[in-house]
Amino acid sequence: MNLAETILIIDDEVQIRRLLEITLASNGYKISEASTGKEGLIAAATNHPALIILDLGLPDIDGIEMLKKLREWYPKPIIVLSVRSSEEDIIQALDNGANDFLTKPFRTGELLARIRVAIRQNMSSEDNPNLTFGFLSIDLVNHVARKNNEILKLTSTEFALLALLAKNSGRVLTHQSILKEIWGYGYVGQTQYLRVFVAQLRKKIEDDPAKPKLLITESGIGYRFHE
Length: 227
Prior knowledge:
Number of helices: 8
Strand content: 15-25%
Strand order of the largest sheet: 2-1-3-4-5
Structural class: alpha/beta
Distance between the termini: 17 Å
CATH architecture of the largest domain: 3-Layer(aba) Sandwich
Order of helices and strands: EHEHEHEHEHEEEEHEHHEE
CATH class of the largest domain: Alpha Beta
Largest sheet: 5 strands, parallel
CATH superfamily of the largest domain: Response regulator
Helix content: 40-55%
C-alpha cells in the first residue's frame, strides 16, 4: 500500500469521522474530512483522494445527488457508509456511481478490506488486456478465457458478462446495470434472464457452481466478482 494515499471522509457525524480517522491513520492512510456536501466537493477537487467514504445523510446535499455530482468528474472509488439499509437505497447508490455500500454500524475490519480491494482495483489499468484470478485468466483483446490454462468454450455473451464482472472485480454491479451494459435498455427488468446466464457461466468457471467462489450473488441487488 502506498502510505501517501489520501482517503476523504464526507460525513456530518463527528464520532464517525473520529473513528474513521483513527482506524485509517493507524493503517497508513492520510485523512481528509468534510462535514457537508459542499465541503466534500471542494475537498475532493483540491485533495485528490484515492478513495471517498460518503455518508448519504448529509445536511445540505442529498447523498445520491452527491454521487451524481462527484461522478461528473471524479473517477476513483467511492464507498457509501450509511444508516440507510434498504435494497432500494443500496441499488440506487450503486447505480449512481458507488463502488460499494456498507451500513452503519459497521465493522472496521470489513471496511478496511473493502477499501484495499477498491484501491487495488482502481490502480489496475482500465485498459489492461489480461486479467488473472488464480486459476482463471481472461484475455480481453482476443476474447479468450482460460481455466487452469485450458481455453473455456464461452459464447460471446458469456464472455462479455465475464469480462464486465472481472473488470469490476470487488465491486457490486446491480442487476439493472449489468443488463443495460450487456443486453441494452430493453432488458433492464429481465433479472431472470441474467440469472440464467450467470448459472451457465458458473458451470464453466467455478470448481463447484453450487458454492461459487468467483461470481458471488449479492441477494436482491446484483453480483460481485471476487478476487
